[in-house]
Design a protein that fits this description.
180 residues, 2 helices, 10 strands, 29% strand, 4-stranded antiparallel β-sheet
Length: 180
């Protein structure tokens, strides 16, 4: 009777720079109070490491570090390693405009060459949106109403040659100076 013993050895495998960091809904226009979700994936080594997140806001010297976000794992037997995936959802504020989100395996976070960075986040300020809406309400809408009202009254020509020359009501009135 023969006994076949298969031994499998896995050694310590160092983590690597994450392969991807992307934002869901990258073509969306974000405004304050919207939620933005970022996803990070990459080799977290063996033993399995944890992906952590960092938010660097424009004009701030200190980054906000998120270490309590869950990392999900898939074991890659062929390489004796784990691939980790983590997602970060933040509720945006005006302070997040131009913020850069980054992720890395926890032991590599201080090595900037091993960190994956997002593009700056564009957040439309409700203040700016309010100004644009105010301009539309005060200038554009009354102008459109004025045009529609005068068009209906026939004060604005319809550019129809047959009626333009034959209809005396479409002739532009001439101003005359009244003698006193």
């Amino acid at each position: 009777m023969s006994l076949l013993v298969i031994l499998s050895f896995c050694f310590t495998v160092p983590p690597e720079k994450p392969d991807t960091l992307y934002m869901k809904d990258t073509f969306a226009l974000f405004k304050e109070t919207d939620n933005a979700t970022f996803i990070c994936e990459g080799n977290v080594g063996n033993p399995k490491g944890k992906l952590i997140w960092q938010t660097q806001r424009k004009g701030e010297n200190v980054s906000e570090v998120n270490t309590d976000i869950q990392t999900d794992y898939i074991k890659i037997e062929k390489y004796c390693s784990y691939v980790g995936m983590s997602s970060l959802t933040i509720t945006l504020s005006d302070k997040d405009n131009q913020a850069v989100i980054s992720c890395a395996e926890e032991s590599l976070m201080n090595n900037t060459t091993m960190v994956r960075y997002s593009q700056p986040v564009n957040v439309l300020s409700t203040y700016i949106i309010g100004i644009v809406c105010g301009v539309l309400a005060v200038i554009v809408i009354p102008f459109v109403v004025w045009i529609l009202y005068n068009h209906k009254r026939g004060l604005i020509n319809k550019r129809n040659n047959s009626t333009e020359t034959n209809n005396p009501s479409l002739i532009t009135p001439q101003l005359t100076k009244l003698s006193t």
